[in-house]
């Protein structure tokens, strides 16, 4: 199912404001089509919203961002043929497109943004079945479980040639990443809106709504998988990606309205998700500023700049960062003409490492419970709650009044959190101080 004429042509390198496609403020549903389009648009767009008056303190204005990464409908023509120029099965593309898309997520996100007084939300237009920005870049290996997939999946993973896959990452993944970085920088809260199927692959029923705020590796092993991010990132920070009061507030708000809510079930955040990458990047960005305050002479040093670039390469897209990572942690030999630069960078890395170890408890505590720690979480809404489905389980029509009720409940919980729930770090009873082995610092497993 493809409609080459359905989408207008747009040319831009980054997210650009456009007219909303989320319906009017009363929740009127937009037309629903199961067709995808080959008519290209920017890979990510800022979708304009007509905002309500700001419902929380002025200090939080411009500190919230909302994104939708799995509700896109664009599959450019050049990716419809494999490495030998043979057409990829349209039936296979159709099945993957319908199954993978987060139907209705843009409507929910737009409604949340409007109620929070935001002027836009960010929407990835590239179809998820072609490129999943919620994973690390690369081609998924055969048999990989869902949460361990890479950005390029079936039916494209085993059909695109190297040049096609590389261009797809450069022209879509990298463009989305840059625009998302610009949207997130300086924000206090990032909300990722998703929708999911009613049933797990096993046949058990999923929760109506789920709030996701913990990294998969931390839940399973008490630490992040070795080698995914730099070992300087403290594992304990992966325990939660958002102030734990906010998921609790979301649960309370929605449960009061008759909507069952789960937390970190039926799955968790894969390490390649924007929410986890955002947490790692934000910590090293904060640590860089703290370190440079203590050692201002390092701010303009090429060796230190090289190290910070490596530490914040959470998208795994910088070749020189990957080389330095392999040099430091796997003892790889650098090209001879880079030997001195890599040696200098390793010295800088050890300096940063000593600084972090010497100030470990203070650094972790200061950052982990800071009121200014950047927060991010994902929220999943079941597709069957906000759509009428046909006998094959495909969405036929959005049910706007129900989708709007869920979205308004989410937004109202965020508003209550911002106006009532945020408390100073020293508010808690010292007997309940969050410094035991459950909370760190010092409670995380050894790498």
What count of domains describes the coordinates?
1
What's the count of strands? 10
Could you give me the name of the CATH homologous superfamily? Zn-dependent exopeptidases
Helix content: 25-40%
Question: What is the CATH third-level topology name?
Answer: Aminopeptidase
Highest CATH level, the class? Alpha Beta
Q: Which range does the strand content fall in?
A: 5-15%
Helix/strand order, N-terminal first: EEEHHEHEEHHEHHHHHEHEEH
Strand arrangement, major sheet: 1-2-4-3-5-8-6-7
For the residues shown, what is the average pLDDT? Answer: 89
What does this structure look like?
This protein has helices spanning 90-100, 105-115, 162-184, 216-221, 245-256, 274-294, 302-311, 319-330, 339-358, 360-368, 383-386, 400-421; strands spanning 17-18, 44-48, 64-68, 120-124, 189-196, 209-212, 261-263, 375-382, 387-389, 395-398. It is α/β, with parallel strands linked by helices and 447 residues long. The strands form two sheets. An eight-stranded mixed beta sheet has the order 1-2-4-3-5-8-6-7, with helices on both faces. Strands 9-10 form a two-stranded antiparallel sheet. Helix 5 (245-256) packs across helix 12 (400-421) and helix 7 (302-311) crosses helix 9. The termini are far apart.
């Amino acid at each position: 199912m493809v409609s080459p004429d359905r989408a207008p042509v747009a040319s831009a390198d980054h997210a650009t404001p456009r007219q909303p496609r989320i319906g009017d403020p009363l929740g009127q549903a937009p037309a629903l089509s199961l067709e995808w389009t080959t008519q290209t648009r920017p890979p990510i767009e800022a979708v304009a919203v007509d905002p309500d008056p700001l419902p929380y303190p002025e200090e939080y204005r411009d500190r919230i961002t909302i994104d939708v990464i799995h509700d896109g409908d664009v599959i450019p023509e050049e990716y419809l043929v494999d490495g030998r120029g043979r057409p990829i099965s349209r039936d296979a593309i159709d099945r993957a497109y319908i199954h993978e898309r987060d139907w209705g997520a843009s409507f929910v996100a737009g409604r949340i943004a409007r109620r929070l007084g935001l002027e836009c939300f960010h929407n990835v237009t590239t179809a998820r079945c072609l490129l999943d920005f919620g994973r690390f870049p690369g081609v998924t290996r055969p048999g990989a479980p869902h949460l361990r997939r890479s950005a390029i999946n079936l039916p494209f993973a085993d059909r695109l040639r190297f040049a096609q896959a590389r261009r797809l990452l450069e022209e879509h993944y990298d463009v989305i990443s840059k625009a998302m970085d610009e949207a997130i920088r300086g924000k206090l809260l990032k909300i990722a809106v998703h929708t999911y199927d009613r049933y797990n692959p096993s046949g058990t029923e999923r929760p109506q709504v789920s709030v996701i705020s913990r990294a998969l590796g931390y839940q399973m092993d008490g630490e992040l998988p070795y080698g995914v991010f730099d070992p300087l990132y403290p594992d304990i920070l992966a325990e939660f990606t958002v102030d734990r009061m906010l998921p609790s507030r979301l649960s309370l708000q929605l449960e009061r309205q008759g909507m069952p809510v789960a937390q970190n079930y039926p799955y968790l955040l894969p390490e390649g998700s924007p929410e986890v990458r955002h947490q790692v990047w934000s910590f090293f960005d904060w640590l860089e500023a703290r370190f440079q305050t203590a050692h201002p002479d390092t701010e303009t040093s090429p060796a230190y700049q090289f190290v910070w670039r490596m530490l914040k390469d959470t998208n795994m897209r910088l070749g020189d960062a990957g080389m330095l990572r392999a040099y430091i942690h796997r003892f790889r030999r650098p090209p001879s003409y880079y030997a001195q630069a890599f040696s200098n960078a390793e010295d800088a890395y050890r300096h940063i490492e000593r600084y972090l170890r010497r100030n470990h408890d203070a650094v972790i505590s200061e950052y982990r419970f800071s009121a200014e720690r950047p927060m991010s979480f994902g929220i999943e809404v079941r597709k069957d709650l906000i759509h009428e489905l046909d006998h094959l389980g495909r969405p036929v029509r959005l049910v706007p009044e129900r989708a709007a009720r869920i979205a308004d409940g989410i937004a109202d919980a965020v508003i209550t959190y911002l106006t009532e729930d945020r408390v100073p770090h020293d508010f808690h009873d010292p007997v309940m101080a969050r410094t035991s082995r459950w909370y760190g610092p010092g409670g995380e497993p050894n790498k």
